[in-house]
User: Fold Leucine-rich repeat protein from Macrosiphum euphorbiae.
Amino acid sequence: MTSISGFVFVNDMELGRKYGTRVNHTTIEIKDIDGTYTVLLKLFPNNLKSTYLLDDLDSVQSHEKKVVLKFLKPNHELLVMSDDVDKVTNFLKDLRFLNKNLILNIGESFLSNALKAFGYINNNPNRMQNFNPAHLRMIALENCYLPHLPEGIGHLTLSSLSLNGSRLNMSKYGQDLFWDWMTKDNISTSLNVLEMNSIGLNKLPFEIIHLKRLQTLSVSNNKLTHLPHFIGELPQLVTLMIDGNSLWYFPEILLDKAYKTLQIFNNRFIYLKFNKEQRGNVEFTGLQNPPKLSDVSVLSLINNSIKFKRQEIPRPLWNSYDFVCRCRLCKKLFVFDEKNQKFTFSIPKTEQMVRIESIHWQFFKCPSCVRLENINA
Assistant:
């Protein structure tokens, strides 16, 4: 068996998509499975993302710490960005050995232009002058100090953005500007993957509600104490990584959603108690009482998909987003009162999930439905 780990990007030439698998370090592993040499793409040791047959590997191209594997079936290119040139050298050595002994006829070259499909930027300063950022599809601003993200990022048609490990300006006024990029038309209709692992998030920014094409959200190892119900307004979300936080429950709006991958271990689901004394003090840690006069305003903003800069609306409205949910019965949006919360208990629906059993799901019924139930009781 041979393997290499690093950040991996996939160029799907059949669908014309490029996307990254930037959830920690990803592994490309080649092993003999029942006599068939198979290439495994793994996000985690027990989380298989996709598989390829080694017989379908057409060519291998490399440059410094980068390796591109080009497959015929499916028509994919995998770019592996390793952090160690020795790992790349050893991986290529093992591949040559397999190529020779299995008579695979894998082509190989060491040309830097093999990376053009992934937007590779040469160190040549003259080439940098001609670089057009509008062509960017993936950006990784990882382990950086980010006092703010330029609003212009929202004008790019990115498919993948990673902020993993970066230090953000989350002061009282720093957050006024930090999330504006999410509201821009281009990125709100193009971004498929958003990763914000280990950045000290206390709550999800409500602007994320505008990312309607988002398929993968990774916010592992943060300080989240609750998952807002507005996350249910992301219709294409199928991969959710939210392990390593302090969540007590999930919003019930996600109960019927079938995920491809769900990582929710290392939270506090098992500690939720169903007694009145603890309900008011535990489940809503970090939340404030919703400002009643703003209910109509925040619902209008969501229902009409109005995009705006955070600093353009009164600050009390920011907190209102944490109290917006859909009624369990009529499915209409309303602003809930935490005193009326109820829970159900069930196992999430997912193809791949690690170390979790049934969890609690919080739900609410709108006042109109409650009145109707009382009348019919």
Summary: The CA atoms of residues 256 and 349 lie 7 Å apart. Confidence is low (pLDDT under 50) at residues 109-115, 120-128, 274-288. The radius of gyration is 23 Å. Residues 85-102 form the longest helix (18 residues).
